[in-house]
Amino acid sequence: MQDVAAMPELLGAFLTKESGQTATVTSYEAMTGGYSRLMARAEVRWQDGSTETLVLRGDPPPGKAMMETDRDTEWALLSALGQADSIPMPKARYYDSTGSQLGTKAIVLDFVAGQSLQAHLNECSPDAGYGRHTFDLVDTMAAVHRINPDDVGSSIPRPTDWSTYLGGLIDRFRQADHNHAESNPFLRYVAEWLDANRPPPLPLRLVHSDFQPANIMVGTDGSHQVIDWELTHIGDPREDLGYYMIYSSASGPNLIVPDPEAFLARYREKTGFGEDTINMATLGYFSSLAAITVYGQVLAGAGAMARGQNSGIMTTYTLNALTVGHNNFLAGCIPPTL
Amino acid sequence: MFSRPTTDQVILDCRNELLNAVDSAVSDPTVKITIQMLENVLRNVAERAAHEIAWMHEETDLMIGFADEVETTLGKSDELTAARSAYNSGRSDSLHLDDVSKTYGLAGECFSVAMEKVFAASHTALHLRSREILAIRLDHENKIMGEWAFVGRG
């Protein structure tokens, strides 16, 4: 995928084989903006004269990934979501499951015209506010959490019950510490705090796990399409609320902060969840808890680098995300009073 | 060896060269983002190079002091004794970075085990003391991080 000179021919042959009609790739370029996977954009002319733009999403070379996720799982998940028409998202079209044709395991998706929500937010003036974007973001998050978990079939694991699931999630802090190249007391502190302060349960739902505005494409009519489902799992939907809270605190704007109660009220309205489970306290709790999915991946990359098994600017650059995580862990874990 | 310019000064000079000489000669957007990331990493490591040994020493003393305070207040436990024993046998007074880092890691394990004991005992005063030490650690991390946001996302 990285060999821009060779890819038009390779991709053309791949698409021809997969689709059954001759495809000619008229342009191919690497895309910026994705951190974990290689991304590219290709213009394709089909045998019948039609043209379209496609997006490729593939694995970086071995030892160069800032996080390891499974393309087979992602393809199965995207296919299931697409088949069930669960939520607006770019259609996953083809998959090189071995990497033998595109140089690396890669999924070919529909291209979405328009900008990401992050780009739209960057154009807004904080003083003037963010208009419809705040509630649009809430509505899209709620739409993800309204997806029937049955839609994804067996493409991703289904936890048995909320309490066991939450315990496992908390234990990932301890495992991340145990597996790392040095002791990390933040992780052990947070695990203890989260165990001692468990919130009321919610039904297990689909959790995007990297829910942030750069992963939402906005159409010309303002509609949203959610992308980048590589970390998606069945879990507690509040993980996405908490993750969005901490992500946007590090890479703003944070659309919760101007009016948190209105944000949460809208989310409750769109999901049907009650105020006993969706409130400021649970937002704080899940701001600490939810970070572990991405944090754990970044820490694993750092550990691999410390052991000489990984390299690359993405790993060193995202070390700061660990510090962002530590800040949020402590902020979310309210201390006791004497 | 020579010590001036210091390591952080040398690194920051490389950063300036990267921004002033290399970046302006590059037009590829993916490489431009890599340069922005490199600039950030160079700032981070300059700060680390200037202070990390002193900071790790300071924190090590605080973490071991806390572990001892927990043992005195809440009594001995097998886990804390084992962590303390590993620290005593593995620690070093060497100022070489790898040795300081190893000692710091062993102290961190003592601190973590002690915090778990504090949670199990619901001891509020020691809980708050552990947060003070975590806050000092975090302050050092924040100084290394400086201004940081995800570049190239959007």
Question: If you had to describe this structure to a student in words, what would you say it looks like?
Answer:
The complex is a heterodimer of chains A (338) and B (154). Chain A is α+β, with helices and mostly antiparallel strands and 338 residues long. Chain A folds into 2 domains: 104 residues, 2-Layer Sandwich (Phosphorylase Kinase, domain 1), CATH 3.30.200.20; 218 residues, Aminoglycoside phosphotransferase (APH), C-terminal lobe (Aminoglycoside 3'-phosphotransferase, Chain: A, domain 2). Chain A is built from 12 helices and 10 strands. In chain A, helix 4 packs parallel to helix 8. The longest helix of chain A has 18 residues. Chain B has 154 residues and is mainly α. Chain B has one domain. Chain B is 79% helix and 0% strand. Chain B is elongated, with a radius of gyration of 20 Å. The termini of chain B are far apart. The mean pLDDT of chain B is 96. Classes of the chains: A alpha+beta (338), B mainly alpha (154).
Strand fraction of chain A? 5-15%
Largest sheet of chain A: 5 strands, antiparallel
Parts with pLDDT < 50 across at least 5 consecutive residues of chain A:
none
Number of domains of chain B: 1
Give me the number of helical elements of chain B.
Answer: 5
Indicate the structural class of chain A. Answer: alpha+beta
CATH class category name of the largest domain in chain A: Alpha Beta
Tell me the total number of β-strands of chain B: 0
Radius of gyration of chain A: 21 Å
CATH 4th-level superfamily of the largest domain in chain A: Aminoglycoside phosphotransferase (APH), C-terminal lobe
The SSE order of chain A reads HEEEHEEEHHHHEEEEHHHHHH
Total of helices of chain A: 12
CATH-derived architecture of the largest domain in chain A = Alpha-Beta Complex
Q: H/E series of chain B, N to C?
A: HHHHH
Uncertain stretches of chain B: none
The average pLDDT of chain B is 96
Percentage of residues assigned to helices of chain B:
over 70%
Oligomer: heterodimer
- Label the structural class of chain B: mainly alpha
Most extensive protein-chain contact, per-chain counts:
A-B, 41 and 42 residues
Largest sheet of chain B at a glance? none
